Amino acid sequence: MEYKTDIEIAQACELRPISEIAEKAHIPEEYVEPYGRNKAKIDLRILDSDRPNGRLILVTAITPTAAGEGKTTTTIGLADGLARIGKDVTVALREPSLGPVFGVKGGAAGGGYAQVVPMEDINLHFTGDFHAIGAANNLLAAMLDNHIQQGNALGIDVRKITWRRCVDMNDRQLRNVVDGLGGKANGVPREDGFDITVASEIMAVFCLANSISDLKARLSRIIVGYTYDDKPVTAGDLKAVGAMTALLKDALKPNLVQTLEGTPAFVHGGPFANIAHGCNSVIATKAALKMGDYTVTEAGFGADLGAEKFLDIKCRMAGLTPDAIVIVATVRALKMHGGLDKKSLATEDLGALEKGIPNLLRHVSNIKNVYKLPAVVAVNRFPTDTDAEIDFIIKKCRELGVNTVLSTVWAEGGKGGEALAREVVRLCEEEKGDFTFSYPLDCSIEEKIEAVAKKIYGGAGINVLPAAKKQIEQLTALGYDKVPVCIAKTQYSFTDDPTVLGAPEGFVVTVRNVKISAGAGFIVALTGDILTMPGLPKKPAAENIDVDENGRISGLF
Fold first, then answer.
1. Which of 73, 279, 354, 383 counts the highest number of beta carbons within 10 A?
2. Predicted pLDDT at 382
């Protein structure tokens, strides 16, 4: 069988006009704003539709490894599988950041025969949403520094500025900079830095807003720094909110595209999953729920990060209740969690699988026993997986009362997702969840962080460093203690140490810094070394990308 790259598969697909996809998604023509032939923005009035909400399916995964899991691919293939068994379905995904596209991770449009298209557009500029978010972020930075330059009426302490500029590119050179040099006319010299756009609080605000008015209210609450007497200074204080919203008003409309098999796909927003909440926009999810009887969505990284934040932050803020959870795993990744070297993954090794499977089982138990939601394990099957290895996973999951279904969506598209689709439908129709959050909002900041560390990560507790303790005291005094917590942690481990695989026990999570994202409406607790501006690898993916004289892109995965 001839091997084709993702981009070759996507370019061979005959895309349907976006008007046809909108009609399939029950979207009236007057709500569709085409961006060329195959993309569209959807008017926010779609949220007022009297169509009842469909069922919400969340796809999450085990702790990621270098062997790969295929969460986005499974999300798309499951949606196509549901369509193939006769269900009215939509899919809701995040937009890719240019940083990973040109770096090492790759895009976020799925893979193989389970992709959203046009994949080149989605992975590159798409409809300009990220550019708008970056512009709004940097407008606020410019207005902040201009306020200081023009007399500093608010008394902002330049040593306590927390707002950074951003760019949607992996550029380590910009992590720490000194700006405002060149004399009095050129600004006030200070230490500064850049984040990648997806790490900007404006991205988190954008993805949690319900409407333009909600967006404005959230933007106005963003804290950019503190005065000499430690009072917070907001975007509202700087009178920046109207102009920022003007930059964001069109971006806030969700984007409509399609899968390779013509399933309507809402692709909108994309906050980092280990430093923000890692889910597509609330607006896109709600639009997708209105327009389909089943909506399949995903959350970034493993279930300890993506699903936890989807459930404890996004669902809580947006009033959403998932009907079923899909946990994606691969035999290869579980063997890596069991200590097997990446070069040996193609060989049957039940010993390594037995050592690694507790990682999957902890994620399954969290969904079933902490959040009390129906779940299914989707094993993304590779040709080298043996029946004995698959049977071992099925047996272990059955002991927790969860079925395991094989998925071959990468190779077969929706056809390879039909069995998973049937199990998802069964869960929705036969098993009712009793959705519960992992912590209440009225407990202290420390108690919330500890609840996640113990209940979700499986740790023994937390160690809050003195600097973080002081920050918690300050935020509590300012009245910011009754909001969800967003824990910034490595995606590669249940712990705050990326080298610790499997399902460790007895560990302590160290909380280094705690800060408020007042616009987004959550506390960020930083553990380990989490970068808000990644760097490019030794051989960036950008080196492989090219365009021919006809404008056809190659080398993009």
1. 279
2. 84
Catalytic residue among 301, 507, 522, 557: 301
CB distance 277 to 522 below 8 Å = yes
Would you state the pLDDT for residue 495?
96
98 close to 168: Cβ distance less than 8 angstroms: yes
**Is-catalytic flag, 105?**
yes
Q: How far apart are CA 394 and CA 403, in angstroms?
A: 7
Smallest CA-to-CA distance from 543 within 554, 533, 534 is with 554
pTM of the model: 0.95
Q: Best-predicted range by mean pLDDT among 54-68, 344-358, 463-477, 538-552?
A: 463-477
Structure tokens given for 538: 């030794």
Torsion of CA 449, 453, 456, 457, to 10 degrees: 150
**Whole-number Cα distances in Å, 433 to 321, 368, 428, 436:** 9, 9, 9, 9
- Decide if 73 is catalytic: yes
- Between 1-15, 238-252, 533-547, the lowest mean confidence (pLDDT) is in 1-15
Sign of CA dihedral 362, 367, 372, 378: negative
β-bridge pairing 194-196 and 165-167: parallel
Note the residue count of the chain: 557
Q: Residue 1 pLDDT more than 60?
A: no
Per the annotation, the verdict on 71 as an active-site residue is yes
- Catalytic annotation on 39? no
Burial 522-541 (b: 16+ CB within 10 A, else e): bbbbbbbebebbbebeeeeb
Element at 212 (helix H, strand E) = helix 212-221
Please tell me which residue in 39, 41, 55, 71 is annotated as part of the active site: 71
Instruction: Based on the residue annotation, tell me whether 499 is a catalytic residue of this protein.
Output: no
Residue reference for tokens 């994202």: 517
Q: 72, 73, 127, 234: which is the annotated catalytic residue?
A: 73
Measure the CA–CA gap between 223 and 556, rounded to whole angstroms.
38
Q: Helices in 409-529 by DSSP H: which ranges? A: 409-412, 418-430, 445-451, 466-477
Amino acid residing at 467: A
Query: CA torsion, points 24, 25, 30, 36, in degrees to nearest 10?
Result: -70
Q: Which amino acid is at 493?
A: S
Q: Per-residue pLDDT averaged across 535-549, rounded?
A: 90
